Amino acid sequence: MMRPAAGHWFLLPWFLGFFGLTLGPALASLVLSFTAYDLIEPPRWVGVANYVRIVTADSKLAESVRITLLYVVLSVPFKLGFALAVAMVLNRGIAGLSVYRALFYLPSLLGASVAVAVLWRQVFSGDGLLHQALLLVGIHSPSFVSDPDYAIYTLVALSVWQFGSPMIIFLAGLRQIPRDVYEAASLDGARRFQQFWRITLPLLTPVLFFNLVVQTIDAFKAFTPAFIISGGTGGPINSTLFYTLYLYQEAFGYFRMGYAAALAWLLVLAIAAVTATAFLTARRWVHYEA
Fold it and tell me: Which residues contact 118 (CB under 8 A, 6 or more apart)?
């Protein structure tokens, strides 16, 4: 029989990774957030000066926060709504379900990769596939990625296109709802919308809550699509300047590592606050089986 102490040796690689690659760097960045550091000179302690500047003297930061919030508010509901709609269609037991499920999930497997972002830029550029398709029907469209009025919406569309992960989770949740509940509702004269509103949605709220939290966190952390589509500038006219992209510019564009560390920790606190708010309000609308 294996002694209990032997299990600690099997956990040792995980502990080394956690303390050496996760917790250690995180604590180091927290210390750096109170310093002025440019990768050349040794860090110089400045106290809360970085945080004071964030709050009082950084107008570009305010624009990045606005763009990020707009992206989160638009991408998360549309992505979850589209994922739920597709999941409900697949839940009807259509032929070739496994094939459709794999095809819809494939974009999520690719994630926010550079290749996907480059492809998306080619689709929505001035001479891209969408522009050429619209020309066939006589519509002259702008270069969506170069127009500040449309650029952010191309990133929202990219996020919605990668709906496969929440779709699979919704589909699993729908499969857990007993069919006899719908049969009883039909006998009572409930229509499709009434069944969805009174049965499907309430019983699906735990799954919806999980997807909402995960997708919101991912939306706040979005970086690669904005970086690739804007060429790392956040343009045009800061219309795709996500908070994470602005943080990157401060760190690796201007080498203000201490200030970038302070921005990173404020993002952590903001995500934690949003997540905590979601959990505090969940008791009002998330229904679990007793």
Answer: 228
Q: Does domain 59-285 have CATH number 1.10.3720.10?
A: yes
Residue 44's beta-bridge partner residues?
Answer: 36
- Closest-CA residue to 155 (of 112, 115, 211): 112
Exposure of 176 by Cβ count < 10 A (0-12 exposed, 13-18 middle, 19+ buried)? exposed
Q: pLDDT tens string for the chain (290 positions)?
A: 455 567 778 888 998 999 999 999 999 999 999 999 998 899 999 999 999 999 888 889 999 999 999 999 999 999 999 999 999 988 887 777 778 777 888 777 776 677 788 888 888 887 778 878 888 888 888 888 888 899 999 999 999 999 989 999 999 999 888 888 888 888 888 888 888 888 889 999 999 999 999 999 999 999 999 999 888 899 888 999 999 999 999 999 999 999 999 999 999 999 999 999 999 999 899 988 65
Helix axes 97-110, 164-175, angle to 10 degrees: 140
Chain mean position to CA 280? 21
Structural contact between residues 74 and 85, judged by C-beta atoms closer than 8 angstroms: no
